[in-house]
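Sample log: histone acetyltransferase.
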Amino acid sequence: MKQREILDERRRQLTYFTSCNAGTCQCRGFRPVLSNEEETVERRATRAERENDYAPMTRDLESLASEEIIECRTCGHSISFHAEPIKTLSEEEIDTYTDRIADLQTCCSELSEIDPTNESLQTLYITMQMLLKSLRTLTPIEVPFIGKPNFEPDSFSPFILVKKFIASRPVDNAEKHRLAEIGTLFLTEMNHWRLESFENLASNLSEQLEQGRYRMMFTRLDYYVNMPSKYLTFKQYQTVDIFGEKFALTFCDYLINALNSEEYSPFGISESDLEESSEDLTTFATELKSWIELQNFTDDSYPSSSQRRKDSSVSMEDLQLTYVKRKKPTDHSESASSRESTTSPVNDESEEPLKKKKDRSSSQPSTANSTKKSPETDESMAVVRSLIRAIKLESDMDAMEPKTKADFEELNKEVSRGLGALRDEESGLIEFRVIGNDLDPFQDHEQLAQLVELQNLFGAQLPKMPKDYVTRLIFDSRHLNMVILKRDVGVIGGICFRPFTNRGFVEIVFCAITAQEQVKGYGTHLMNHCKDYMIKNKIYHMLTFADEFAIGYFTKQGFSDKLEIKPTVYHGWIKEYEGATLMGCHLHPQISYIKFPDFSKGIQALHIGYKMENGAECRGRVFGGLEHIFRESASGFIELRKIPGTDSLKMNKKTCYQLDELDDTLDTRIVSILKKLTADKNAWPFLKPVDKHEVPDYYAYIKHPIDFKTIQEKFRRKYYAHQHLFIADLTRMFQNCYSFNGIDTIYYKLAYKLNEVALKLLKSAFPESSLYPELPERPSN
């Protein structure tokens, strides 16, 4: 009994890694005896173990954490023989090793999902080996073969190099402070830099990069900087502190070329900072690179490795050089920002006083603010009330308007199907796999059999498709197939697709479910699995050619014929089908589509509840028209509160226009803009309506024509009561031209030039507006 009291949940899990001390027993870790083990393994093998080689370890650790198991299924000895080495450990040490178990499970999970070609695979193997060795020997994590920081002990760190560079500039203090601001952005970007693949990185470097050096640099950066941000027991290092001169030169070279390509996405700074400081960053990196290359430090002028990170000879009292730190998952900042700045390189001596200072400075304000009412409190409480009302909706269906009730019931039906499919998956009745033909003569026979089943399914469900064409695509090594497997049945549905990873889209070629399974929500669940798979592989656009029978299904799955991807991206890469409609779906990287149906049900319920909470007094009532009210209004517009039915709405200044506050300068600004635009040399095609005799097809294609003459007439009739009405007509005028005329025509080019002038004038006249005539694709000169 005493032994059982000692072996709490954490210690039981540790016995999984400790050897048995019973005589000459060779068992290297305690393995619990599972109840009905054969049945459990058989049931779980359909999903977990086939997809994750580390599922048995996860299963055993969960079993050890949840219940007391005495006998080891491997050696038959008591758990107490495996617990001998653990008895001497302190509570703090137990906590440390428990965190390492959690890290090991995270590492194994990533290993089971990572692409074999990913450069981080080696880092994960190193991490797993270090964690396993530490847990089996109950010793600290050793230094791996890649070495330990600092990696260039005979040179300055990038932080010190930038500091010395700014201090050496022959400029006044004001300019040095400006350079320090650019240096902050530069160091932040370097500190969050994630190396691309060898080919991509080499293409952005002016000098040749050896693959061996790249591998070592990538692994060190991944192991000491990137990986600790996801793990609990590894120390978080900062890139700008652990590398040196060679790394700084490589980053400068990369940043210069990447910024010049105009396709650069920032790693640590914001898009707005990059847009504002792109040229300054390029100049800074160029000059820093030249300065480092020209420095001829003698052996006496270079610091020793022990002094390297503590160099203060270049510091200036008025110069503060900062950068944004990489943070661990357990590092919670007191500020609202998700990132934290530091004014010196990270080390154990400097960080602790910094934290204590923050604690002292932030303790009293938090107390003072605890009783202060937030300005959003009232709005938040309104949302809470709406949420409570939404929760009651399912038992209050009769209180809804008929159309709302019908929509809600339809969504309920779809969500119920989706949840039913999800339950079938969780119970092991169905499972989803991605399979393909890798052209390996020794590949899994079961997988080949499933491809044949899928071929037969598509042949039966898509009779118009030639069978040889279906077979060729399914077994093509460039195509992949996501299939639904039903227990004791086999393949009951699937999607054949071809990913274009480098171009950011995937083509859905075939999609079908057997007739017997089409009313169970499996089709939607299959597409949601496919969407999540694409997001996992960083593909955010799905394209397909849908025939007249498939348009309804794909529309229901979020596809539309209005594509959000430029034609130049996919044109020439996918095959067009006669009589089919090209449809696309833009995926959001932060949405889990498998869980989305239930989420959407909650959102709709919340929305309906909010409407009922804020407009219940007039719900169901029908009010008369507004024509007589407009006739009685001499000014041409009416105040919102005079519209019947709006008196019960709870409006606020943030959500509606205050039409009773007239803009006395609006007419003057509109006249000024129209005068400048009509006088422009590119405005002649837009001065009057298009002649239907000269262009007979124009009015059949353009449903809402507009021109400067019509705009001026509407202005004289006092139509433009708000700036957005005027901006909307100008936007429509340009959009009509772009849609009717090709990009290489003279009219498209004139509209583009005039649009640029209009955009500049409107932003100057209406800087607070949220609506502007945005520019389309630039035409060639």
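Observation: The chain has 29 helices and eight strands.
Observation: The longest helix spans residues 402-426.
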